[in-house]
Write a structure and sequence with these properties.
Helix content: 40-55%
CATH architecture of the largest domain: Orthogonal Bundle
Number of strands: 8
Strand order of the largest sheet: 6-5-7-8
Order of helices and strands: HHHEEHEHHHHHHHHEHEHHHHHEEEHHH
Strand content: 5-15%
Radius of gyration: 22 Å
CATH topology of the largest domain: 2-methylcitrate dehydratase PrpD
Distance between the termini: 63 Å
Number of domains: 2
Structural class: alpha+beta
CATH class of the largest domain: Mainly Alpha
Length: about 450
């Protein structure tokens, strides 16, 4: 018996699925500014470094062990590893490793980490098909554009409901990118988006566990499969994204359709991508930056009686873990972030190692952090005062942390980050060659040459 459920829905939504499909299929190659092109290369390199850097993490071992039980054909490379698996599994595992350290790119307007789902799907597909670097960059820009525009339309309601927006929009972005790489026309691209729309991935409850990085990996695999199925004639609703019971209206009460089409083909969301200098949740970065500046001004942990931290409520909602038990949990602890910034002057992956997180001195310093909510402070800012045992107060206010759009990482800083991630896996010389390949990826005739550089000798 059918239920008589009252649904407040927009029955006059514009044809979003078709609009985005035509955008992906028909936009000309390199049809954007030099600034967009540069950001695409920076995004790809940052994603690749994060994926290689986490190749030996327990999460990668566990995911590969599960994949091996499926007896996959050795089609594609797991970055930073000797193993080869089928391309869907490569998309999954590379998506997982690219997000394991929480060090990947961030579209700050939506908190989407866009490269994980899109680039992971694209490189696996490109390796199998022998695609050129130019085709990959085109597909990366357009796939990220789709993912972030869908995210723009639903944020913040969708995120506030508990969805991990990287996974949920990433399925659609990965499908769009793969459809472009395969050269699908607008009608088949619409089918790919429609198939992906039935597979949003990820809940925020999983933050602090291995399942958080599963979300971009799962989205990459789902998007890749959606594009492959569409290529072979699999069908979906032509209104899968926008219909009253389509993806967007089902998982969000906010659907701002203008965010889909406004300046479509003129403004590209990859232009607003940012890169993390610290290996943790983005909202912790201002507090880490402030504590690193306290250290640079001569404040040492043994001098501290307490650290007074004022932040936006979202910071404590997302990263309020006072007693993290391991590195994954510490990535969602602003308390550990403050302790790491003051102790080390940085917060890369080594500062979130399990043995660092549980060190007695770090536990003691974390407990000296007194965090309070001040809604007058933007979520991208932090107000930090170190109260010292001699009575002095040293104050730092961070309006925009390093790595933000207003204070971006330089190419040299990105190179240093890349080396810090990949040198332990590949060695310094190999990392340098991989950086050079990323910078010139648009000129590569066959991306398998780049993939070969990402495997340990």
């Amino acid at each position: 018996m059918a239920r008589n459920t009252q649904v407040a829905a927009d029955h006059n939504a514009p044809p979003v699925t078709d609009i985005l499909a035509r955008h992906v299929a028909d936009h000309p190659s390199r049809g954007w500014s030099d600034a967009v092109e540069v950001e695409a290369h920076r995004t790809f390199m940052n994603w690749l470094g994060c994926a290689v850097g986490a190749a030996r993490h327990d999460a990668a071992d566990a995911a590969l062990a599960a994949v091996a039980m499926l007896q996959p054909a050795p089609q594609a490379t797991v970055l930073g590893r000797a193993e080869r698996v089928d391309m869907a599994s490569a998309a999954l595992v590379n998506g997982i490793t690219s997000h394991t350290f929480d060090f990947d790119d961030t579209h700050l307007k939506t908190i989407i980490h866009p490269a994980g789902p899109v680039a992971s799907a694209l490189l696996a597909l490109a390796e199998v098909t022998g695609a050129s670097g130019r085709r990959l960059i085109d597909a990366l820009v357009l796939g990220i554009d789709v993912s972030c525009r869908v995210g723009n339309a639903m944020y913040p309601d969708h995120y506030d409901r508990g969805w991990h927006i990287t996974g949920s929009t990433g399925t659609v972005g990965a499908a769009a990118g793969c459809a472009r790489l395969l050269g699908l026309g607008a009608s088949q691209t619409a089918m790919a988006l429609g198939i992906a729309a039935s597979q949003p991935v990820g809940m925020r409850e999983q933050f602090g566990t291995m399942t958080k990085p599963f979300h971009p990996g799962g989205a990459a695999r789902a998007g890749l499969m959606a594009a492959l199925m569409a290529r072979h004639g699999y069908t979906a609703s032509l209104r899968a994204l926008e219909a009253p019971r389509g993806m967007m209206q089902t998982i969000s009460s906010k659907c701002d359709w203008r965010e889909i089409s406004h300046e479509l083909g003129q403004r590209f969301e990859i232009s607003f991508n940012s890169y993390k200098p610290f290996a943790c949740g983005i909202v912790i970065h201002p507090a880490i930056d402030a504590c690193a500046q306290l250290r640079a001004r001569g404040v040492t942990p043994d001098q501290v009686e307490r650290i007074e931290l004022k932040v936006h409520s979202l910071v404590l909602e997302l990263t309020g873990k006072k007693e993290p038990a391991d590195g994954l949990q510490a990535k969602f602890s602003v308390y550990h972030g403050c302790a790491a910034g003051l102790t080390f002057g940085q917060a890369g992956e080594p500062e979130f190692a399990d043995d660092v997180v549980t060190r007695p001195d770090m536990v003691t310093l974390r407990r000296k952090v007194v965090a309070t909510v001040d809604e007058a402070i933007d979520e991208a800012s932090a107000d930090v005062t170190a109260v010292l045992t001699d009575g002095r107060r040293v104050h730092v206010f961070i309006e925009h942390a390093i790595g933000s759009l207003q204070n971006p990482m330089t190419d040299a800083q990105l190179d240093a980050k890349f080396h810090s991630l990949t040198d332990p896996v590949l060695g310094a010389q190999a990392s340098g060659r991989l950086i050079a390949a990323c910078r010139g990826v648009d000129g590569m005739a066959d991306l398998r040459a780049l993939v070969a550089l990402s495997v340990p000798a």
